[in-house]
Structure formats: structure tokens, C-alpha cells
Design a protein that fits this description.
Keywords: Sigma factor, Transcription, Transcription regulation
Helix content: 40-55%
Organism: Kribbella orskensis
Strand content: 5-15%
Subunit structure: Interacts transiently with the RNA polymerase catalytic core formed by RpoA, RpoB, RpoC and RpoZ (2 alpha, 1 beta, 1 beta' and 1 omega subunit) to form the RNA polymerase holoenzyme that can initiate transcription.
Family: Belongs to the sigma-70 factor family. ECF subfamily.
Protein name: RNA polymerase sigma-70 factor (ECF subfamily)
CATH topology of the largest domain: Nuclear Transport Factor 2, Chain: A
Length: 355
């Protein structure tokens, strides 16, 4: 052999990473069935984030999603011996998680936004106590969800506020069928097995669910809007909103809003529709009656957001007050949803207070 020639390699002897990964998974599955909880953790850990997102879409609350996922994984651990390998482990875990969520939907009901409860107010309501008896829709941290298409919706599109809010109007079985088919890419036949029903029933549920959801969500998603305006313009809009709030600058704020903008602050029950009503509220409350704001730009539900900290004076410590999620149409803000409550800050990995 020439000194310049390469040695021949036995390709058959080279390890196949996919095959090796499959062997490892099979070994972990066998160990988990034998009671090895560490092996079970290794099996489910790569799927934990997407399962949690599925539970959030079903339930509309990160806290409910936490409970559902914990319960689902406990059910899966206890029932692992019944997993016969006829489907993938991922499909089986989605079956367990979906059925767990359906149990919670039945017992806890749906999550709401102020728009679901009453007509909009045409002027600022100064006495607007929180409605603690309502199960409110909550924000979601979607920072590490995949951005590529899975089925009809991207993962980030599938946690946008408008989509998750629309889902809450569906009965549990329709909600589950739509998510499993449109977001996660399971077939109608697979969903029928997962939900212990017929393929015809799944197709019927999908038809009814699509009709309602399509009526309630915008034709253009927030992900499409963000791509169209670009990151630089998006950052500029969010910074301008944040600065206008901190400075109490009504003119700067109104320049950012569409004529039909909506503004809601769950758990407050009142909400505002149209620039006149929204600005009446903004001027009367956040721009005037709140002593001092410190804001941090962030993201929630895959959308631009602002973490709003409220202080008694500019030089005082400011405490987490609300996570404000912004809906855009073109390069204008068409929706402001401020989720009031310090508990939302930890969900997004944000500090409880700032100087």
C-alpha cells in the first residue's frame, strides 16, 4: 500500500449511533420495569419539556401543567409494566398525559381571560378588585420549545395566548384531539387508540374543534408577525412600550397602539377595547396613579413581553407586579395582556424585585 493511500475501513464495524441509542433505551426500559427509578428518569427526561407544554395547552396554566405532568409521570411509572411496546414510549406517555389532563379539565373547568366573562369597559375602572374565584389563563415560559414545524402549528405558535385561549372554549375531548393531531402530528387512528374511542369520533371532534378555533384566532400568528418585522424592529417596539410606561408618556404609548387595541389585566375582571378606552385606562392608572415603574423585556408564550416592577418611589425597591404579553399586528401593538401577580415572575426565571 502506498504511503499516501488511506487504510481501508470496515464500515460494518463502525458503531451506529442511532442503534446504540436504541439499545440504551431498551436497557433503560427493562431496568425501569424492574423498578429502577433512575432508568425511568433517563427515559422520560428528554420528553419532559414537550409533555409539560402539552399539559399547558390542555389546561391553560403552568401550575396545573406542573400538577398534571407530575401525576402523569407517576401513573406512567406505576403502569410501566402494561406498556407492551406496540407504540413508541413517546406515544404512550402522551396517552397518559392526555388522559390525566382530561381528568383535570373535568374537575377544574376551563381557564378564562377577562374577554370571556363580560363586555369591555369604555372608561377606566378605578375600583377593580381581583376576581379570585375565577380560574384564569396564565402565562407560559416557551424559551426552549422547538421552533420548527411539527404538524400544522409550530411549537411556539401552539403556546401563543390567542391559540391557548381559544382551546379553553373546547370540550376536553375536542381540545385533546386537536392538539394531538394539529400540533403533535399523531394520526386520527393513533388518537382514537390514545383516547379509547373510534377514528370516526376523532374526525368528528377535529372538525368541530377546527371550526371554533379558526373563528377565534388571528389568521396571522405572532411567530409569522415577528419574522416579518424582524428582531431589530421587534426589540424597538418593546423597548418603546417599556420606556413609555416608565416615563408616563401617554403620547409615546398611543403611537404604538392599533385603533382596535385591547387591554386586559387578569385577575381584574374589567378590560378595554379600542384606543380611546385603553388610553383612558392607561392614563388614569399605570401612567398616573402608579408611583414608579421599572421594566425588563422578556418573552412569554413565545411572544414579546415586559416584566413590570412597581415601586413606591423612583429610588425605592421595585417589586414584581405583572407580566405583560404583547400581541402585534404588523409593527403596532394590538393587544396588551398584563398577568398581575408576583407568582408569574418565577415561572419566567425573573427576579422578584429590582432596584
Amino acid at each position: 500500500m502506498s504511503e499516501h493511500s488511506l487504510p481501508q475501513t470496515d464500515l460494518a464495524a463502525q458503531p451506529d449511533p442511532a442503534a446504540q441509542e436504541d439499545l440504551t433505551a431498551q436497557a433503560d426500559l427493562a431496568a425501569a420495569r424492574a423498578g429502577d427509578d433512575a432508568a425511568f428518569t433517563r427515559l422520560v427526561e428528554p420528553l419532559r419539556r414537550e409533555l409539560h407544554a402539552h399539559c399547558y395547552r390542555m389546561l391553560g396554566s403552568s401550575y396545573d401543567a406542573d400538577d398534571a405532568l407530575q401525576d402523569a409521570l407517576l401513573r406512567a411509572w406505576r403502569g410501566l409494566a402494561r406498556f407492551e411496546g406496540r407504540s413508541t414510549l413517546r406515544s404512550w406517555l402522551y396517552t397518559v398525559a392526555t388522559r390525566t389532563c382530561l381528568d383535570l379539565v373535568e374537575s377544574r373547568g376551563r381557564r378564562a381571560l377577562p374577554m370571556d366573562l363580560s363586555p369591555s369597559s369604555d372608561r377606566a375602572i378605578l375600583e377593580d378588585p381581583p376576581l379570585t374565584e375565577i380560574a384564569w389563563l396564565g402565562p407560559y415560559s416557551a424559551g426552549d420549545l422547538a421552533g420548527g414545524p411539527v404538524a400544522r402549528y409550530e411549537q411556539r405558535e401552539a403556546v401563543e395566548l390567542a391559540f391557548v385561549a381559544a382551546l379553553q372554549h373546547l370540550p376536553g375531548n375536542q381540545r385533546a384531539a386537536l392538539l394531538l393531531f394539529e400540533v403533535l402530528g399523531f394520526s386520527a387512528a393513533e388518537i382514537a387508540t390514545m383516547m379509547d374511542t373510534s377514528t370516526a369520533s376523532v374526525n368528528s371532534a377535529l372538525q368541530r374543534a377546527r371550526k371554533l378555533v379558526d373563528e377565534k384566532i388571528p389568521a396571522v400568528t405572532q411567530q409569522q408577525t415577528i419574522r416579518e418585522i424582524g428582531n431589530a424592529r421587534l426589540e424597538e417596539i418593546v423597548t418603546q412600550y417599556s420606556t413609555a410606561l416608565e416615563r408616563g408618556d401617554a403620547d409615546a404609548l398611543v403611537a404604538l397602539l392599533t385603533e382596535d387595541v385591547t387591554w386586559a389585566m387578569p385577575p381584574m375582571g374589567h378590560w378595554y377595547s379600542g384606543i380611546k378606552a385603553a388610553m383612558d385606562f392607561a392614563v388614569e392608572v399605570p401612567l398616573t396613579r402608579c408611583p414608579s415603574w421599572r421594566n425588563r423585556t422578556t418573552t412569554a408564550n413565545g411572544q414579546p413581553a415586559v416584566a413590570c416592577y412597581l415601586g413606591t418611589a423612583p429610588d425605592a425597591e421595585h417589586f414584581g407586579w405583572a407580566i405583560t404579553v404583547l400581541n402585534l399586528r404588523g409593527d403596532k401593538i394590538c393587544g396588551v395582556t398584563s398577568f398581575v401577580g408576583p407568582e408569574h415572575f418565577a415561572l419566567l426565571g425573573l427576579p422578584a424585585s429590582v432596584d
